[in-house]
Amino acid sequence: MVQRIRSWGHNLRDGLWFVPALMTSVAVVLALLLVRVDQRLLLDRRAEAMWLFGGGAEGARGVLTAISSTMITVTGVVFSITIVALQLASSQFTPRVLRSFTGDRGNQIVLGAFISTFTFALLVLRAVRSATEDGQTFVPSVSVTMAIALTLASIGLLIYYIHHAARSIQAAVVIDRAANDALGVIDGLFPADVGHPVDPAAEFPLLTAPGTPVRSVGSGYVQAINADSLFDLADRDQLVVRLEPRIGEFVLPG
Fold this sequence. Notes:
With 254 residues, this protein is mainly alpha-helical. Helices cover 65% and strands 2% of the residues.
């Protein structure tokens, strides 16, 4: 069970969807809150002197429409081109390039910033009302100003992403990441205290009784082995456990 939770955590960390989904959820909440703030500032004359968006309803609609359409277009084009470049790099170097791309925190944040800016602008757009609709004009100045600020931040992240993506497919960077991943796995499987037994080694007699095989209930690749649970089970019941399949091998049912 613990190993499954760890595997689920690794998949969540290396997935390209979790951080963007979290940032998009924050953008939804932020848009709803700022629209409420705009509704309260509508009756406050001091808000007119603040450094906020000063256009009318049509101007706000134009700005928000431009932001939403531009951000979703930039997101699709940039990441499509990047995937093509990564596929070429993976065929020349190693398929680890694709996994390092999806698990890279910078890529996740950039994608989340683009999508959350699009979502924020789209939600604020629905709150803009002109006098011809219900007789009262409502321009969420704070929300529109925040949308402009998020767009400027996204432009900066786009510049960073282009540099980061071009650097991530270089041979030296790919090799360095693969080496760091391998060293991390080795440190996890073989910590520093391995090789120094707590108790003196016991003499095991020759195994003459037949063992009990543990058969696989499904097919797939062995992703992880919960060694701690196996050690506890063997120590409690005085068993000798022999592992036939190794991590990375494919097993069939039975």
